[in-house]
TrEMBL record, chains A, B:
The keyword Transferase applies. It comes from Orchesella cincta. It comes from the Eukaryota. One of its GO terms (biological process) is protein histidyl modification to diphthamide. The lineage of its organism: Eukaryota, Metazoa, Ecdysozoa, Arthropoda, Hexapoda. It holds the Pfam family TP_methylase. It catalyses: 2-[(3S)-amino-3-carboxypropyl]-L-histidyl-[translation elongation factor 2] + 4 S-adenosyl-L-methionine = diphthine methyl ester-[translation elongation factor 2] + 4 S-adenosyl-L-homocysteine + 3 H(+). This is diphthine methyl ester synthase. Belongs to the diphthine synthase family. Pathway: Protein modification; peptidyl-diphthamide biosynthesis.
């Protein structure tokens, strides 16, 4: 049996009682560690569960899925995912492969940023399409997310922007020298995301949908004791420091009086 | 201290470890019981927590909030919500009132249908605005959700439709006789929702966005052992019986090959 278990927002105790019971009985426990991060490290989790964990990077999950599935044919295997198991395409793919091999699977859901972002007081029903904001490089500055934000905003909808995560990225320089070395992990901050958005706005003189002075919300470490939420203008967010990862950004659409009241308590 | 604790999708064991620890230490525990339902009854929950529960209906939460907040000023009070605490406006309002009275509060997030709907294989990032489909009455047949679904569909986005719940609704006939009696609880099925949508389509000859033959997904009791997911045309869903509540409906937008593959496993 293959169990996909959501770990929720970051603390070991964010796992559900059901999830914890299953983890304890599984023979193999994998921890997916590249689409998000936990504030707790694998050692802390392992201790909390009383189980050894295999930390699975992208390569292991995408190329080593057969091995995980082979084990699930004969014994109980847990695959742990930060947030909810269906937050990333890779996990959907794993379920699909299990299903085509007739391996029974069960999903244990949990909170993810997609619903926990409600903590900022904006109504979840009034969010439009979610976008991802990637890190820009020297030669590649994609901005397709900008149009999606504007489409949402024109309809009065808020936009949740998921910010880029770079974990175990091969270092290009050492690759060219034939060595495999990894860059240190990077997590985009709301300030970096706001900075890219402001740059796009400055390049589009005809845009009158998303402005530098529009209200946005920066959220950091949602659900943790150090959670931070800040509401300000997009251009002011560029200067804000919300501390350690994970960060997410919300571009506000049309706001209900109750939403405005709530946001006021986070005004900066 | 006021704790708002999400209970997740329906089973007592869907509570998080953190949530359970807090419930056990609270002096007063309220269970919100009108924006959603648990498959488990309050008695089963109370036994699982080892705590007495006060079942709070809409009236109690909206009119009796002061009493809950007074208690939270001097002791630990838990307010339990099916799904995630920020799934309904009432709970946002409760947090806002606590905040204005300087009562400290903490939120324990959990899965809600808004992310657990990913179990049908449609990517959560490709959902547009969420809509609510209300029960029609003899004299009132609102259809504003139809335009929202079409707006999403035009942009290639899926729509999650939350279906109406009627819990503790005063019976009109007895009200006119001066008595307070309540109708039995009702939960809209995907078949009823599909039926209303088909009727709207038949009334709008100019609509070419949402058709009777479009692919939709009906989901029931997501996250429970009896979970059921069915993918078929909108008109065929009218005849489908997915069993007991809760049901939700998804209107598909443009589908990625991986999404199509996944949906095939639920084809009916």
């Amino acid at each position: 049996m293959l169990y996909l278990i959501g770990l929720g927002l970051g603390d070991p105790t964010d796992v559900t009682v059901k999830g914890l019971e299953i983890i304890k009985k599984c023979e193999h426990v994998y921890l997916e560690a590249y689409t998000s991060i936990l504030s707790a490290g694998p050692e802390e989790l392992s201790k909390f569960y009383g189980k050894e964990l295999v930390v699975a990077d992208r390569e292991m999950v995408e190329q080593g899925a057969d091995d995980i599935l082979e084990k699930a044919k004969v014994t109980d295997v847990a695959f742990l995912v930060v947030g909810d198991p269906f937050g990333a395409t890779t996990h959907t793919d794993l379920v699909l492969r299990a299903s085509s091999l007739n391996i029974p699977f069960q999903v244990v859901h949990n909170a993810s940023i997609l619903n926990a972002v409600g903590a900022c007081g904006l109504q979840l029903y009034s969010f439009g399409e979610t976008v991802s904001i990637p890190y820009w490089t020297e030669t590649w500055e994609p901005d397709s997310f900008f149009d999606k934000i504007c489409e949402n905003k024109k309809r009065g909808l808020h936009t949740l922007c998921l910010l880029d995560i770079k974990v175990k990225e091969p270092n290009l320089e050492s690759m060219m020298r034939g060595k495999v070395k990894y860059d240190p992990p990077r997590f985009m901050t709301v300030a970096q995301a706001a900075d890219q958005l402001v740059k796009i706005i400055d390049r589009k003189p005809d845009n009158d949908t998303l402005l530098r002075t529009d209200t946005v919300v920066g959220v950091a470490r949602i659900g943790s004791p150090t959670q931070k939420i800040v509401s300000c203008t997009l251009e002011n967010l560029v200067e804000m420091d919300l501390g350690p990862p994970l960060h997410s950004l919300v571009i506000c659409g049309k706001m209900h009086p109750l939403e405005l009241d709530f946001l006021k308590s986070f005004a900066s």
